[in-house]
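Entry 14. Structure prediction run on the chain below.
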Amino acid sequence: MKQNRDSIILKKPDEIEAMRRAGRVVAAVLDRCEQACRPGITTRELDDIACETFTSLGATGLFFGYPDYAPGQGYPRHTCISVNEEIVHGIPGDRIIREGDVVSIDCGVRLKGWCGDGARSILVGEVHPEVRRLVETTRRCLDAAVEAIRPGARWSEIAAGLEQIADSQRLGIIREYVGHGIGQSMHEPPKVPNYRITPGGREDFVLRPGLVIAIEPMLTLGTGQTLTLRDGWTVVTQDRKAAAHQEHTVAVTARGADILTLP
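Output returned:
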């Protein structure tokens, strides 16, 4: 696939530093939202906190109005906030966060022309042990991907490891939504699957210094089959079992991985 391989835009060191500044804004937003994510708050209130945070830090959100080629039909809020059975693209609104919920917050920003993208699943109060295992395993997948990054490696090697971790915990893997390259645009080549792919196949790519990708494993307590709600955005599990989503923007360097969405 030409788009996945030949169209990849490698970033220079100064460009990666610019993306790190955007990534730090994302981290600040997620930290603020996690602190505020308590029983009784609505997802709209969390979204307002996110907007106030990135705006105060000089950034603009990537999600509001997306995609920009569809005026009047774009995404209506500043973040995606997905609760329990919602996997991704949950629209913030009147839903009240309750004890035992898992709340996945996805935030993307642009700062001085460069993008950062990250997501975090938050456990609210006392949660079911299975939900805790789900969130911890999803985080483990993200950490394992970062740890395995090195120049010359193929993504297929890393993706196979992510599927193995999910399978070992009997968790479903979301295959319809994957990670992506990122830079001056939120979505750039390559696509970054979180499951086993054919080595050397059209979805595979070689990690090279300067490559920046958003890695975002999504796992569920069920089968991994999805359904999009009537709002046209919110993606839920078909069996309505809980889902989790973790994401970092990561640069490939000569020494390995450099996480750009850290404080």
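Residues 2-259 form a domain with the Creatine Amidinohydrolase fold (CATH 3.90.230.10).
Filed with the rest of this week's runs.
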